[in-house]
Design brief:
heterodimer; A: about 1000 residues; mainly beta; Immunoglobulin-like; 2 domains; 5-stranded mixed beta sheet; 12 helices; 49 strands; about 50% strand; B: about 425 residues; Serine Threonine Protein Phosphatase 5, Tetratricopeptide repeat
Amino acid sequence: MRNKLLFKIGWLVLTLIPAILFAQNRTLTGTVTTGKDIPVPGATVLVKNGSQAAATDGNGAFTINVPSNAVLTISAIGYKTQTIDVGSQTSLNVNLAGDVSRLDEVVVTGLSTSVKRQNLANAVAVIGPNQLSGTAPAQTFDAALEGKIPGAYINANSGAPGGGISVKLRGVTSVYGNTQPLYVVDGVFVDNTATSGGLNAVTSAGTSGATSNQDNPSGRIADLRIEDINDIEILKGASAAAIYGSKAAGGVIIITTKRGKQGKTAVTLSQDLGFLRPIKLLGVRQFTAETAATLPGDPATLTKMFNDANAKGEIYDYEKEIYDNTPFTSNTVLSVNGANEKTGFYFSVGHKDEDGLVDRTGYNNTNVRLNVDHKISDHIKLGVSTNYIHSSSDRGIFGNDNAGVTTGIALSSTPGFAQLHPDANGNYPANPFAASNPLQTIALMENNEDVNRLITGANLEVSLQKSAHSLTRFIGRGGFDFYNLETKLLFPSVLQFEAINKGASAQGFTKNMSTNFILSLVNTYTPTANLSLNTSAGITQETGDYNNLLNVATQIISGQSNIDQAGSINATQLRTKYLNSGIFVQEEATIANALTLTGGLRFDRSSNNGNTAKYYVYPKGAVSLNLTSLGLIKEGFFENVKLRTAYGEANNTPAYGSKFTSLGVSNISGFPGLLVNTDAGQPDIKPERQKEFETGIDFSLLKGRLGFELTYYNKNISDFLLLTTPPASTGFARHWVNAGDLRNHGVELGLNARPVEARNVTWNSSVNFWLNRSKVTKLTVQPVQLGSTGGVLLGTYQIEQGKSATQIVGLNGQGVGILGDAEPTFQMSTYNEVTFFKNLSLRFLIHWKKGGQNVNVTSLQNVFGGTSADYDEKTPSGMPKGVTQLMQIGTNAQQTVETSTYLRFREIGLYYSFTKLPVSFVKSISLGASLNNYFTITKYKSYDPEVSNFGTGFSSGVDIDPYPSSKRAAFHLMFNF
Amino acid sequence: MQNHIKTYGILFISASLFFTACKKDYGNLNNATIEDLSKNASKSDLNNLVSGTESGTRNSLNFYLDDVGVIGREIYRFSGSEPRYVLDLLGANSSTLSGNNFYITTPWAAKYRVVKNCNILIQSANNSSLITADEKKAYTGFAKTIEAYQLLLNLNLTYQNGIRVDVANPEQLGPLLNYTESLAAIASLLDEGKTDLTGSTVSFSLAGFPGLSDAAGLIQFNRALAARVNVYQKNWQGALSNLSASFFGLDRNLNLGAYHVFGTGSGDQLNSVFIPQNQNGEQRVAHPSFATDIEAGDDRLSKATLRTTPASLSGLSSDRDVWVYTSSTAPVGIIRNEELILIYAEANIQQGNLTEGLKAINKIRTSHGLGVYSGALTQADLITEMLKQRRYSLFAEGHRWVDLRRYNLLNTLPIDRTGDDVWVQFPLPVTEQ
C-alpha cells in the first residue's frame, strides 16, 4: 500500500515540476568523433563558465545554444577532454584523442579537494554507472560491488534476500575492530551496522543470549539504490584516505549520486523483470532399505519407514523441493533530471520487489531521491541531497544452529523417506530425524527486517575571495543518516521445536542517528602558470547514536505475535554513542603540471578512546611525478608516464564500551541481579593505527588506447585491537587489549584498453589483477583462535605471531597444524563493453578468485546427518565414503578446510537502443537482457564458495548451511523521454 | 598570502575553542561497571550482586550435568547438531577429551564467572560504608559459601588436574592446586563463610533457599556442602559433625534443601536440563543400564520414562527419556536432604557403624517403595548398596561419575561400543594450561 502511494506522489511531483526554460542565444551543431571519423556517443559538451550543456547522440551529433564567443569543453569517458574556442562558427567537428586511463578524470583527494587523475599519487578505483547498474544489476548495492574493485576481497555472507556482504580493502585491517570501509554518500557518512533480530534465542548458535554474530543480519549499506549512483571512488587505505582520520582504516568508499544535468529535462522510466535460480544444489542420498536401517534410530522401524514410503512412492528430494524454485523479480525506476543556469535537480523514485528461492522469503525496496543544486549568487552555491528508503527483507532461518532448527541443519539429517508434508488440515507431522520439520518451519516462521531511512546531505560553497592568482572558498558539507529498523521474528508454538518455549516472538526496534560535518577553507593560489598551490584546512565532527531494544517473548498465545501476548518475555537494550572530532590541514602543490606534492595532517579524538581528551595525529604525504609532462620522456611509444608514492596514517577507534568492565543484569524469581559480564574492559585502550605506503607507475601506449597502472602497497597496523582469551578462571572469557602489529602488502595491476575501435564496433576492456599477503608481525599475548564453530576439530582462524593473519588451523592427523588461509592467492577480473552499430551493446564482467580456503561445515554436516549425496560411494578401502569421512572427525580437519577457487561470470548484459522512433516525445527505448552470477566454475563442494556464517567481520568464509545463493536473469526495458 | 594566514588563524582559533567545548565521554550507557560498584556500594547494589550470583550459578548448568551424566553412563545426550556428546565424552573411536571444547570450557568459565561475581561482592561489601558490620558479614559469608560451591563443581570435572582457588586479581592469578590442596582450600573457604555468617544479619533475599535464607539457614546450607567436601576428603568424622550442623534429618523431607530455581519472568531463565518427553533431534535419554539394573518396585524408575519410539545415535540407543526435571521451570537441586542421608550412611559405614549406616540406607529404600536391605551386613556390601542408592536417588543430578571415581570403580561402568573409553577427568581448558 505504502509503495503504491509513493508512486502516486512521485508522479505528482513529476507533473508539478514546471518546464524549465533555457536562455537562448544561437544554435551550434556539430559532431564528436575519434580516430578515423568514428562517432563518440554520449560525449558532454559544456559552455565554459556558462550553464548550457548538451550530449551527443548515437551518431556523435549534438546541438547546443551558445552565447557569442563561447568556449566549449568537450569530454567523454575514455577520451581526452578538449577545449575549443567557438568564435563565430555555427558548426563544429571535434576529434577526441583516446584516453582509456581516464587521465582527465577528477578524483577526490581531500575532504574538500580533488585532483586530476593525471596528477594523482594513489591508485584510486572508480566504478561508473554502466559497471554498477548497467550490466546485470544485483539485488542490493553491496552485491553490485563484487568483482569490481581491484585490491578488494568482497564476499557475500549468504544468499539470503536483502544483502549482507563483507568488503575488505587491501587485506584485513583489523581483527576485532571494524574491518569494513567507511561509506560516504554525497558527503554523508552512512551507517552500515548489521543489527541482529535475536535469531540466536532460537538457534543457540552462539553460546548464550538473544543475539550472536551468527544471526546473519544484513548490513545497512544494502539499502542504497544503485540506479541513483553516478560513480563510486574507492580509497583503499590510509595513504589515500588519511584525511578521513579515525574512520578511514578500512578504506573509504565515496559514492556520488546523480545530479541535474543542463539541457533538456530528461525523463527515464525503466522496468526490469526477471527471475532467480539456485546456483547449485548439493543433491541428496538415495536410500535403500539397508542403508535406511543404518540411520540413527531403531533399524526395524527405519526399514519399515523406508519400505512404506517406497511402496507409496513417497520418497522426496526435500532439498529440491525447498530450494529449486524460480522466484520472480521486478524493479521499476522513474527518474527526472534537468537544470538551468541557477538550479538543477535529479529526482527518482524506484520500487523493487523480489521473491527469494525459499518460500516466504524475499526483498523489497522503495526509494525516493531528490537532489537539488542552486546558485544563490555567483559566489554561493548550495546543494542538497535527500533520500528516503523503505526496505523490507524476509530472510528465513539459516546458518549455524545448536538446536536443530535452521533449514539447512534440519535437512542435513532428514532422509528422503521421511514424511514431512502436511495433512489435509494443514497439520505438519513431527520430523523423526531432526528437531524441526523444515517444511513446517518455512511455512510458519517469520524473520523480517524492515527499515525506514532518511539520508540527507547539504553542501555549501562560498567564494570568499577571488583575484587573478588566488581563489579562497569556504566549503561546508554535512548531513545525517537516520533510520528506524524493526526486526521481527516469529516462531509459532505449533512448530516442532517450540515444545519447550511454546512459541517465540522477538521484536527489535533500532533507532540510529549518525551525523557528520566538515567545515573547511580552501585556497587555490596560482602565482604563475607553472605553479599551483592548493591549501585546505578545517574541522570535522562525526556523531553516532544507536539504540537497539530487543524483546524476546516465549510461551506465545496461539495465533498472536505481539510480544505482550506471551507468558514470558526477556528485554535487552543496547546503546552506543560516540563523538569523534578532528582538525585537518592539507597542502597540495602542482609544479609545471608534472610534479604534485601533497602533505596533510589530521588530529583526531574520540569518545571511544581510553583517553577521550587526547588528540591522535595522522600525517599523510604524497608525490607524483609525470615524466612525460616534465619532458624527461618524450611522448612516443610511452605516453603519460607517471611515478607516484604516497604515505598516510589512519586509525580505527576501539569499539564502544571496550574500556569498561560491566555487569549484566539478570533475574531470578523477580530478584534483579548483577552478574559480571564476560568481556573485561581495558580502561586505557588506544585506537589501532594504520600506516600505509603505496607506490606505483602508470603509463599509456598506442595513443591512449592502452593504459597500465601498477601499484605496490605495504600497510602496517600497529596496536591492533584484540579480544584475547584470558584464563577462564579470571571470570572473563575475553579481554580487550591492544595486542600487536599486523602487516598487509600486495600488488594491484590494472590494464585499460580499447582493442577495437572501428566505425561499427568499439570494444573497451579493463583487466585487473591483485593479490595481498598478510602477517602478524607482533603479538603480545598467546595465539587467539576465533571464527570457528568447532575449534580445531573443524578448522579455525588463529592469530599467531609470524603467521598470516587469516591462516586456518586444525587437526591434521598428527596434531594441530596450518590447514589453509582465507587469503586468495590472487584475484583477477575483467570488464568489457562491446558496442556494435552504435546501438547494440554487450557488457560483461568476469571474476576469478584463485586460492583461499573456506571452512566448509555444510558438506560435513550432511555426512554427519547421513544424507550426503555421495555417502554410499565406495572408497578404495571398501567402506562407504560417508563412513570414512566420519572417521576423520576428531583426528583430521582437512576435509572441512576446502579451497574456494572460483571463476564467475558475474555479469553479462546485452542492450539495444532504438533511437529512431515514430513518436517524437520518446527519445529512445532501450531493451536488454542480463545474467548475474549465472555461470560459476568451481570445485568447491558446498552451495557457494562465497559465504560467511559469521557475517561481515574478520572471519568470513565459514560455511555452515547458509541460505543457498541464487543467480539472476532479467529483461530490461527503458524509455527515455 | 597575508590574507590567507589571517583566515587560517581565525579558523584555527575558532576550531580550538569549538573542540575544547566538545570533549565527551559518554560513560557506559548500557550497564553498571565494576568501578561504579567497588567505590561505595549501597545495600541495594549489594543485594543485586547477591541475586546476580544466585542467578549466575544456573548458567550452563546443563553442560555440567551432561558431562557428569554422560561419562558416568547415567544418560546419553543425543543432539543432531552436536556430535561431541557421543564422540568425545564417550571416547568413541580414537576421540579424546580436548581442553578446547565446549564441554569443559563452557561450564568451567560459567562457574568462575560466578566466583568473580562473589569476589566483586566481597570487595564491594568491604568498601561500603553504607552497611553495618553484621550486614557486611552476611554478604561475605554468602559469597564465600557460593564461591566454594562453584569451585567444587569445577574440581569435580578436572579432578587431579586441579583448579585455581586464588583468582581475586585477574592480572595475577594464583597457582593451580592439585586435587587434595584444592579440596582443602574449598573446605577452608567454607569454614570462613561459616565464620562470617555466624552472628550476621542477612538483609538480602534468595530465591532457591526455602527455609534456609536467613543466617541460621545459610550456615546449615554451608555445613551441608562442607559435609559433601568431607566425604570427598574421606574425612568421615568431619562429615558427621558437619551434617549435625546442617539441615540433615533422617526423618525430614528428602527434598529439603537448596535449589536452582527457574522462571519465565523477563531476564529469568528456563531450566536448561529440561527436554520434553519423546522429543526428536535434541534428546537427553537414560542409559539402558538404569532400567535394567533397577530393583523391581523401585519408584525411582519414574525418573526415566518409556519413550514411544526409542532414541538412537551413532550406535547408541535408549528407550527411556530422562524425566527428573519435568517442566521448563522445574528446580535443580544444589544439595538436598536425600544426599545428606546418604552421606550419613556412607560416613557411618566407613567408620564401622554399620547399624547406623543401614538405618539411613533403609530410610532411602523404604521411601522409594523398596523393602529393607536384605543383603550381607559387611562394610563392603553396604558400601556397594550405598553407591547403588546414590545412583538412583541422585540420578542425573551430577554424582555417579564422581562417586565411582572416589571408590576407584570407573572400570565397572558399561562400555557400549567397542573402543569407547571411560574418562577419569577433564583436561584443563586450554586457556589455563
